[in-house]
Amino acid sequence: MNNACPLCETDSKEAFSRIDQRYLICPKCDLTFVNRNDVLVPAQEQLRYELHDNSIRSKGYLNFLYRLINPINNFVKDKTKNGLDFGSGPYPMLIELLNEEGFKNIKGFDPFFQNNLAVWNENYDFITCCEVLEHVNELKKTFENLLGHLNSGGFLIVSSGIAPEKSKDRENWHYILDPTHISLFSEITIGWMAKKYDLTFEFLEKDLFIFWKK
Ligand SMILES: [Zn+2]
Question: Is residue 95 part of a domain?
Fold first, then answer.
């Protein structure tokens, strides 16, 4: 069985099980991840995502998205800069809102709903990952691909639940109840990623952080 961490490839041990998924914790980067033999098949995964109706402008959802849009407005004064929303979901609401904020060059990519491979022909000044990276299976490859398409001085802004510090608290963490949440970061993981890839990082909120490419 392959117990390699999907982020740093270190052999990891099973820490706990919930329902029918086994979870491992990486001793090196502290990523919590679902045993890749236990993840949903893509068709089941897509069905779950289709349940997320992100076309409705509820106040709560807009507030949630503005947690990313406000810092982008602060950091990016030139509205012609290139942006990419990675994992844009069934409806590209974040892109729509960024367009309303005046950003003119925002593209979206989603392997299930907007598999537009042409987005990888260019580089970006900023990339958004709003509740996306925790769903990613090939995390190392995906993260390196995103960094590879980020311009120098650009940033990757990520919203994702941050795992409790203690492994026993992760077992009871509500965030893992979603079976599509298979790659879970802790604060240690974020620090490890920044060091490994020579990025600066900053937590804007507990579950919202930015990596800056030097
Ligand atoms: Zn690891």
Answer: yes
